[in-house]
Amino acid sequence: MTDRVLVTGSYGQIGTELTLRLRGIYGDANVIATDITPAPELLEEGGPCRYLDVTDPRQVTALAVENKITHIYHLAAILSGNGELNPQKCWDVNMNGLYNILETARTWKVKQVITPSSIAAFGPDTPKEHTPIDTILRPTTMYGITKVAGELLNEYYNQKYGVDARSLRFPGIVSHETEPGGGTTDYAVDMYVKAVAGESYTCFVTEETTLPFLYMPDALNALLELSAADESKLIHRTFNVTGFSASAADFADAVNRRIPEFSCEFEPDFRQIIAESWPRSIDDNDARREWGWKPSFDLEAMSDDMIARLREKETVVAANTENSGV
Ligand code: SER
User: Fold this and answer.
1) For residue 198, is it within any domain?
2) Of 146, 225, 240, 324, which sits with the fewest C-beta atoms within 10 Å of its C-beta?
3) How many domains does the chain have?
4) pLDDT band for position 325 (50/70/90)?
């Protein structure tokens, strides 16, 4: 049987790039990209793009069955910042969405379900440095609560029903293709985007705020390597992964070294408290041991690549605008 992949939240920060990678692996026609908004140009023509509201169990099941889905990457979620603005919606999308996916997987014998968890699963009582997988999980955001509950739900479906559910606790993700939507770690991306556009930036956390991060190519590798990992070697079902830890000032300095005219101010808002409730660095040794995880990008390598890619994009946009006579 051909492997057929369903991606939810396909048009988001991770989903867009993951869908492109998966099309390369499984074949364009075998990856069904889904979301609740119109498909971006980047994905629209290359393979099937469908509407899917993950909170509707009938839609989830119908789409999975009609498309003979064998693997699901379930990325549809409300992130931490937006989650605090609308906690009820965050619960609905994150919990009912995952429940519907796992129920479909159980009923229709989907081979594997991969879901991102987050450093938001940790809370203010969690040790802040080199935080291991098994530690105090008492988050104070609705997003974090849904992530802890989601990790447990994944494990429950695995133990009780044999669903091959696997999960990664992602730190902040830095990327250039699709902007993040409503997370606490979005400031890191915003700094690079503004700097390349020749603009200044007002950062919504303090200079000292330090969190773990991962550059998108590493994040995609983590998802794909976890999916391919030999199940018999997995001791855990949920893994910590990290690339590097950096403060907001470290990011601003890294940008400044490359774009000296960039200026950044720091005016913390409600997301400061969220950021302070998360670890400064996490320990991903279990992922390294159990499935060979190894990130490639540190802050410097990420900054070089990020700025080069954003500049390439600007050049393409400028050329297109010129050609269209605007
Ligand atoms: N990047 C996410 C957020 O800030 C963390 O999982 O919400």
Assistant:
1) no
2) 324
3) 1
4) low
| Within a domain: 54 | yes
Per-residue DSSP letters for 256-323? HHHSTT--EEE---THHHHHHTS-SSB--HHHHHHH-------HHHHHHHHHHHHHHHHHHHHHHHHH
Structure tokens, 271: 């997301």
H helices within the chain, ranges in order? 13-26, 41-44, 57-66, 80-85, 87-91, 97-108, 142-161, 186-196, 216-228, 248-258, 271-276, 285-291, 299-323
Residue 280 belongs to some domain of the structure: no
With a 6 Å cutoff on the Cβ, whether 219 touches ligand 1 is no
To the query of whether residue 143 is one of the catalytic residues in this protein, the response is: yes
Q: Distances from the Cα of 54 to the Cαs of 32, 59, 98, in angstroms?
A: 14, 7, 8
For the entire predicted model, the pTM comes to 0.96
- The CATH number assigned to the domain holding 220 equals 3.40.50.720
Rounded to whole angstroms, the Cα distance separating 60 from 183 reads 25
Yes or no: say if 303 and 258 are a contact pair by the CB < 8 Å rule: yes
pLDDT of 322 above 80: no
Structural domain of 128? 5-171+216-240
Which of 14, 78, 80 to mutate to test ligand 1, by most ligand atoms within 8 A of the CB atom? 80
Ligand 1 centroid distance, CA of 60 (Å): 25
pLDDT digits (tens, 9 = 90+) for 295-311: 999 999 999 999 999 99
Q: 263 in a domain, yes or no? A: no
Q: How remote is the CA of residue 137 from the centroid of ligand 1, in Å?
A: 16
Provide the phi-psi class of 203: left if phi over 0, else alpha when psi is between -120 and 50, else beta.
beta
